[in-house]
Design goal:
The structure holds two protein chains of two kinds. By secondary structure, chain A is mostly beta strands. Chain A is 0% helix and 52% strand. In chain B, strands 2, 5, 6, 10, 11 and 12 form a six-stranded mixed sheet that branches. A four-stranded antiparallel sheet of chain B has the order 3-9-8-7, with no helix packed on it. In chain B, strands 1-4 form a two-stranded antiparallel ribbon. The N and C termini of chain B lie far apart (41 Å). At the A-B interface, strand 4, strand 5, strand 9 and strand 10 of A face strand 5 and strand 6 of B.
């Protein structure tokens, strides 16, 4: 079974802190994604990566950065957390980098981040 | 622009009722895929089904069935004889061949199934 593991289920941080959200997948998938989920807005893509050290902006990248130094790990960084970044963050991975048909995404359980 | 609309925010049914979750999409791509995912209270989205734009056959899997109609740009999901374990948020999603790897998700429909 594919497993996508997010390092924390719940996180509470203060405004201005630098926050790291970690995600690890164990199935050698090329693609990895970070989404945030807010009520009424569904999932919105923050960043994705289709290979090590490669990244592309999603729909809402402002205030975030990412790092992918190893194929299995994709980190989301909030450089200076703000209250409007309080949300559920979901990591996902998918196989077969450029084959559209293969892009079924496998999700982690999510990290609920509260910024106070 | 690509878009997925799930007009039903929340649906509440009593166990054993049938329920249909609506999904309407917009895309100019000729090749695209439609998905349904389930998010139970545990939080992890789980893949349910994928359908490509060239295959309009309906699909049935146990109590679940999907109706894909290109003419109305809809990909609706029906649960027959609903059970309490079906309570979850359900997302419809679209991946087109000009969108790179960006899957577009709808806002989700929260389904409550009461015993």
């Amino acid at each position: 079974d594919v497993k996508v593991t997010q390092s924390s289920r719940y996180l509470v941080k203060r405004t201005g802190e630098k926050v790291f959200l970690e995600c690890v997948q164990d199935m050698d998938h090329e693609n990895m994604f970070w989404y945030r989920q807010d009520p009424g807005l569904g999932l919105r893509l923050i960043y994705f990566s289709y290979d090590v050290k490669m990244k592309e902006k999603g729909d809402i990248p402002e205030g975030y950065s990412v790092s992918r130094e190893k194929k299995e790990r994709f980190s989301l960084i909030l450089e200076s957390a703000s209250t409007n970044q309080t949300s559920m963050y979901l990591c996902a991975s998918s196989p077969q980098g450029r084959a559209l048909a293969k892009n079924i995404q496998y999700f982690g359980a999510g990290t609920r981040l509260s910024v106070l | 622009a690509q878009k997925v609309t799930q007009a039903q925010t929340e649906i509440s049914v009593v166990e054993k009722e049938d329920v249909t979750l609506d999904c309407v999409y917009e895309t100019r791509d000729t090749t695209y895929y439609l998905f349904w995912y389930k998010q139970p209270p545990s939080g992890e989205l789980v893949f349910l089904i994928r359908r490509n734009s060239f295959d309009e056959q309906n699909e049935i899997s146990g109590r679940y069935s999907w109706n894909f109609q290109k003419s109305t740009s809809s990909f609706n999901f029906t649960i027959t004889a609903s059970q309490v374990v079906d309570s979850a948020v359900y997302f419809c999603a679209l991946l087109g061949n000009t969108g790179g790897f960006k899957t577009i998700f709808g806002a989700g429909t929260r389904l409550f199934v009461k015993a």
